Amino acid sequence: MLWVPTILIALGILLIFVEILILPGFGAAGVPGIILFGVGIGLIWAKSGMTTALIYASVALIFVIPIAIIGLSLIRESPLGKTFILNTAQKSEEGFHAAPQELTELVGKSGKAVSPLRPAGVGLINGQRVDIVTQGEFVEPEAEIEVIQVEGSRVIVRSL
Fold first, then answer.
1. Average predicted confidence (pLDDT) for the chain
2. Are 110 and 125 contacting, i.e. CB atoms less than 8 angstroms apart?
């Protein structure tokens, strides 16, 4: 019968799913998965033709997808799976903020560049030294600048 090639196809599909859903990059499980899938298709094709090979691959795919989904969800709950999944979260109640409050208050304020901005440098805004960045243009030291946006800890300025 064609059980061995069918099992090779199913293992190949399963390894490809592992590569897509669990392992980053491409290689560790993806390449062997593609090879097993190709060998399984090739063996069935050599014995019974391409139509039969595609039918067997389709049936294997139909059975492997639900098994893979159930298996991967069970692995997430297992002690082994929990070692691979980060369970911590950064919450604002614990002191984590997207952008420091003092930086978001600088939007719209003006100041002057302390160092040349190429496009990053240091500026003096409201008497406070701040690491700043322009939108790509060069700004001379002592030039007047204005804060136009704050993204996280990145303060974006423009020349006045």
1. 85
2. yes
| pTM score, whole prediction | 0.48
- Report pLDDT digits (tens) over 104-159: 888 999 999 999 999 899 999 988 899 999 998 999 999 999 999 988 788 999 99
Tell me which residue of 19, 14, 7 sits closest to 69, measured CA to CA.
Answer: 14
DSSP characters over the chain? --HHHHHHHHHHHHHHHHHHHTS-SSSTTHHHHHHHHHHHHHHHHHHH-HHHHHHHHHHHHHHHHHHHHHHHHHHHHSHHHHHHS------GGGT--SS-HHHHTTTT-EEEESS-BSSEEEEEETTEEEEEEESS--B-TT-EEEEEEEETTEEEEEE-
